[in-house]
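I have a small job for you when you get a moment. Would you make up a two-line entry for one protein for me to read? No commentary is needed, just the two lines. Write everything out right here, beneath this request.
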Amino acid sequence: MRKVKLANGEYYHVYNRGVDKREVFSSTKDYERFLLAMNLLNDERDGLMLEWRDMKRTDPRVQLLDIQELNSRRNPAVEIVAYCLNPNHYHFILKQLRDGGIKNFMQKLSTSYTNYFNVKYKRSGALFQGRYKSAHIDSNEYLLYLSAYVNKNNFIHGYNKDDSWPYSSLPDYLGKRNGKLVNKEIILGQFDGVGQYAEFMDKNALYMREKKELEKYLIEE
């Protein structure tokens, strides 16, 4: 049982990885399916995923924007501030908007994606390593630091050497994509433009990556 009650209006670092550190995203379609679920399951109502599936069957050309317009009265459970999907784990920064918002959103997201993954790859059982982990972000400084950590997490873990990873909120923060999945204002509003924030991210991400590399060579006494 989670000891700390998640509070409305507060920010949290939420993360998890595949059971036995296994890959949970094996193809572009997997990443896209998880991102779709992040969008459509972030609502107090159920059924948007099924509605989207039916619309796609009727008209394969339909875009996600169409279902968003059709269901304009959205009541999200959380505000997604930043995210990064890596091959075997994910990170979010979430703001809880209503009672039980993070818990309900994460349960629906995990269940939906696990069912999809197990059917696709003909497997059964848990996909993620237990329940998601969460940590309260209790200061603005910590929020800014974590935004760099999450946005550049793919780089920090050594998966790539630049800012080209599309399965994160980084392209949105750099102005390379006009996505609607994240709310960037709480972060970018504290910097004098995108360039200044990009410098902040680069500096902190490089430090975090170097620290992570160094830890590989440390021996516990």
In short: The longest helix spans residues 194-215.
